[in-house]
What does this fold into?
Amino acid sequence: MTIWIYDEPYFRFPATDYNADNIADRFIHLTNNSVAKYAGDLKVSHDIDGNMWTLSQFQSEMQDVFGWDVWEEKMKQGIENAVINTLESVQDMFESKKGCFELFGYDFMIDDEFNTWLIEVNSSPAMDYSTDVTSRLVKMVLEDSIKVVVDHADAKKKKAVDTGLYRCIYKAERIVDKPMNSFGLNLIVEGQKIKDKNLGNY
It folds into this structure.
């Protein structure tokens, strides 16, 4: 298993400032663009276009407000660790086929101490142009993906290949075998016997 990460994320915001006293208002607690875009002018409490920031916008704001690069100095490594750990934990469930790849979208939440918390992992994430931020970023990701899965994969001198903003953060030393239950074997311990629903008692 080899893991590449895209070095430019984007940041989502709810339409209305966070308030723990009102958990029923989805415009406070959900950052999905499909939700926030229906908030209307009366619900929006900030001037963030499309409720999204680019990485450079986030870094600039954090530097101005807190005086340090929150992304590079803390968040980036935490996200990379989560990506590696989650994929390591399920690597035995992947089919090992040369030339195949999977694109995942990782959603993280940031707390008030800039810790990153994994919310979910999406296989085949949406790549639509929902805002100006995603319109630019999606085009870059798709183009750079080809650089990795075609140009880099076929190159003899891989270090010289342009992979855009993709960076390899993990390469396994061996292939992890699939667990036995993936082959239909379901062993159930019953006293001193082991019963398999497909093979009977033995």
